[in-house]
TrEMBL record:
Presence of the UniProt keyword Transcription regulation in the record: no
Signal peptide from the UniProt entry: none
Organism of provenance: Rhodococcus aetherivorans
Keywords, alphabetical: 2Fe-2S, Disulfide bond, Iron, Iron-sulfur, Metal-binding
Record protein name field: Cytochrome bc1 complex Rieske iron-sulfur subunit
Lineage of source species: Bacteria, Bacillati, Actinomycetota, Actinomycetes, Mycobacteriales
CDD domains: Rieske (cd03467)
Occurrences of domain Rieske (ranges): 70-161
Alphabetical list of Gene3D superfamilies matching this protein: Rieske [2Fe-2S] iron-sulphur domain (2.102.10.10)
Length: 162
């Protein structure tokens, strides 16, 4: 009397001879490596835009405003070495040096809170204490990215912004 086995042993497979076998351990290990590489490359890209203290190092310079740019203020109303918050337009306009007008979306890059004002030569977000220079770069965190710049320029006696 012979007894037939009811299961296949470890040597029996449905794969053709010579074909590589993919096990779950290899599959999940490979997926983990891909995820780790994606995280590391994202961290490296952010680090390239930051200074030694983790704050943004390079100011953003948008193109000149187009022909349909809107007048936001009289040039004389934007003080040299400071700026003005236009809360109703969610816009901050600065003049770091005479004749150099900059405009930024008045939302903090840390968590999207509204910018609360301009104090002397810094743009301020009171939500978590972030501060930005007049060129939009971070001077004090927790924000790490510069403010989003908008094209701005003086046209005659007015400051226009796209």
């Amino acid at each position: 009397m012979s007894i037939e086995p009811t299961h296949r042993g470890p040597a029996a497979t449905d794969e053709a001879p010579g074909q590589p076998r993919l096990c779950r351990r290899a599959l999940f290990g490979g997926a983990g490596a891909v995820a780790a590489a994606a995280v590391l490359s994202a961290c490296g890209a952010e680090a390239d835009q930051s200074g030694a203290d983790g704050t943004s190092a390079a100011p953003t310079t948008p193109p000149e405003p187009g022909p349909d740019a809107a007048v936001v203020a009289a040039a004389a109303d934007i003080p040299v070495g400071s700026g003005v918050l236009f809360a109703d337009k969610r816009l901050v306009v600065t003049q770091p040096v005479a004749g150099d007008y900059r405009a930024f979306v008045a939302l903090c890059t840390h968590s999207g809170c509204n910018i609360t004002g301009v104090e002397a030569d810094e743009i301020v977000c009171d939500c978590h204490g972030s501060r930005f220079r007049l060129d939009g770069t971070v001077s004090k965190g927790p924000a790490r990215k510069p403010l989003k710049a908008r094209p701005a320029a003086a046209r005659g006696a007015d400051v226009v912004v796209d």
